[in-house]
Amino acid sequence: MVEDDKCTVAVLHTEETSVHECDTLLPSSDQRLLSVDNLIQLAPINQASVLCCLNERFAHDLFYTSAGSTVIAINPFKEIQNLYSRDLVMAYHENTEDSPHIYSKAGDAFRHLCRGLGKANQCIIVSGESGSGKTVSAKHLLRYLTLVAIGKGEQDQVCSSIEQRILDSNPILEAFGNAVTQRNDNSSRFGKFIKVQFSRNGQMVGAEIHTYLLEKTRVVHQSQDESNFHIFYQVMESLSADLESTLSELVRRLGKEAFCTLPAVRNHHAHRDLNTTLCAMTQIGLSDGVQRDVTKVLVAILFICNIKISAIEEELCELLNDNVSQTSLQQAASLLGVETASLEQVLLYRNIKSGGDRRLSVFIKPVPEREANSRRDCLATLVYSRLFDWLASFINGQIKPKDYDYTIGKHKELFL
Ligand SMILES: Nc1ncnc2c1ncn2[C@@H]1O[C@H](COP(=O)(O)OP(=O)(O)OP(=O)(O)O)[C@@H](O)[C@H]1O
Fold first, then answer.
1. Which of 33, 250, 362, 411 can pair with 56 through a Cys bridge, CB separation 3.0 to 4.6 Å?
2. pTM for this structure?
3. ipTM of this complex prediction, to 2 decimal places
């Protein structure tokens, strides 16, 4: 019985009664919120109660909370001991732990996959705003899957080899696809869809990484306090060691600052050095020669961006007759292995085709300054995005299951 702030408690059978302050019997509001590990338990559910609950849990190092069948993750922005330990992976895998965690989602997906293998695919969507922790979460999800799949026995080596290759691909994709933004020092500027393939017995046999929507305009334009893709800074940092000395010398003479598309950004450490990226390329199977070519293409892109164009008259323009523009044109052409005149023509003229297949005529028409500028920017972004796509498809070729026959559930060939 409750009266004012007092509560009378009667013990059944003994008929003993005692009187208490109400507050001492009810859990404090903090404790109540802490024990809510699924937001649907909140009453009432509204923006304030949800935020209050998440905030309270966060303050007590509880970074995961369920919302129905979804898990809400709050980025701790610091290393938390044992939050992703191997023991915890096994606990979720063996169902001895069920508190909200990304591992519980990975565990559900893996269990459903094993039960319905051959019939049902599973999908985990990691979404959130920039800097919220999607990339880190995806890495932990992948690690969970590789650990529990390894637990399946026989094919440990295959599984760890796939995991290793996916991990090796990370520094490459990060270098070419990540940049400093106002919200995140290592922001992925592309979408990623990772498909992990399992055999009928639940063994990992391969993976595919599909990349999409690369923010390629970043090559030529960056918002305030944001950087170009990390790889350009990495190349500039170690150019002297990795390219022919004439080019290194030239870049040194021009100075890194001479490259207009490489803004200096506060606290930018280019996220690892070029060596790490090149090592990852070697691990994934790209030869030294190809790596050198990739580096040359990157420097060529920087030179293309440095070419300045000036108007002669309304519909006619030319390359600025200064040292930087002229040298940049020559260097870009030489690094790409094309004639200087051809590159200049691509920037300043456009082809107009007329007639059918039989009587095809091609006219060359000069373009106005504005169009020449956008042709230059398009060329730089196009070359970069083709390079990125090519790298992504090369990586895919290395982690895809080779000759796997899904109908009999056996590997025909393993890539170890
Ligand atoms: N689980 C975590 N534990 C500790 N720190 C984390 C965790 N998740 C993210 N972080 C920190 O937050 C930073 C941003 O995370 P992340 O790059 O995963 O964000 P994102 O959502 O992928 O961002 P973007 O969309 O910009 O690529 C990381 O560099 C890391 O410092």
1. 33
2. 0.84
3. 0.99
